Amino acid sequence: MDALTAVLAVAGVRGTVAATLDAAEPWGLTLDAVPGAAFHAVTDGLAWLRIAGRPGLRLMPGDVVLLPTGIAHSLSSGPGAGTTPFDHAAAERALAAGESLRLGTGPGQTRILCASYRQDPAVTVPLLTLLPDVLHIPARQAGAALDATLRLLASEISQPQPGAAAVLDRIVDILLVQLLRAWLATDPARARTPSWLSALTDPVAGPALAVLHTQPGRDWTIPSLAAAIGVSRATLARRFPARVGCTPAAYLTRWRMDLAAVRLRDTDDTVGAVARSLGYTSEYAFNRAFTRDRRIPPGRYRTRSRVTQPGPPGEPV
């Protein structure tokens, strides 16, 4: 299992469709800040994305944009078009009926899918917050796979069928992975801030991360990890922190604590069983590590997290 697959699975990063827009000029919407990330894909027509304090961004057919912090923004037919607040109730009714949210009068020239993503708060390995504040992938940089998914998305929007909401949510999940791939492929590695995500394409740190995620319960050392990926100890010890931003041991500990937090909350496995599965030779050592990381003992964490269990991922945009 590669690191991205593991983090997406454990962090429960899921997308939820908020609306499909069918807009006739002139039109404009203001969208409040949301928890998680906001996402828009333009399948037909043109739109302008505006964020306070930033230049407007023109979106063309096939463009996708992700706002990882869910910042307040607006979408409109032109840079000077007036806007109205996004009508969540109307959008929900339209989705339930398998319809688009209509804006303006007359035939729609622009179609946009609006969605949101959220990450499980129990997982501290970041994902969405590692991305640029505005991640825009123009159609010309999308690549064949992302282009094919967007065409499927356009088809689902223009010709709704039974089960359309479920299909759209799954397409949104796929689009996130493809968006991340496109960013990794087009953004120069040297320009990225060191992190596990930016290190996925590194020939040393990437394989090391995959090994740590595949076998988090092994007692990894620099020599054993270097041998597993076929590089020298010196190369791994130098390259991993430079690309990821921390040592392999520090990264593994954080990932183990995330795995532990999710299992304590979501399963009835004993604390000892969780500890052993993550490579701790004693429950006492695991308790100390978990308490140091989460500032609460495992047993109390389990009780508290089940009381404050988060709802389904995804909030309306």
Structural notes for this entry:
The protein is α+β, with helices and mostly antiparallel strands and 317 residues long. It has two domains: 3-187, Sandwich (Jelly Rolls), CATH 2.60.120; 198-307, Homeodomain-like (Arc Repressor Mutant, subunit A, Orthogonal Bundle). Helix content is 43%, strand content 17%. It has eleven helices and eleven strands. Strands 9-1-10-3-6-11 form a six-stranded mixed β-sheet. A hairpin with a 6-residue loop joins strand 4 and strand 5. The longest helix has 23 residues, at 164-186.
Fold blueprint:
Elements: H1 3-11, E1 14-23, E2 28-31, E3 37-44, E4 47-50, E5 57-59, E6 64-67, E7 73-76, E8 84-85, H2 88-96, E9 101-103, E10 110-118, E11 135-137, H3 143-158, H4 164-186, H5 205-214, H6 222-229, H7 233-244, H8 248-266, H9 271-277, H10 283-294, H11 298-307
Parallel strand pairs: 1-9, 2-8
Antiparallel strand pairs: 1-10, 2-7, 3-6, 3-10, 4-5, 4-7, 6-11
Helix pairs in contact: 3-4, 5-6, 6-7, 8-10, 8-11
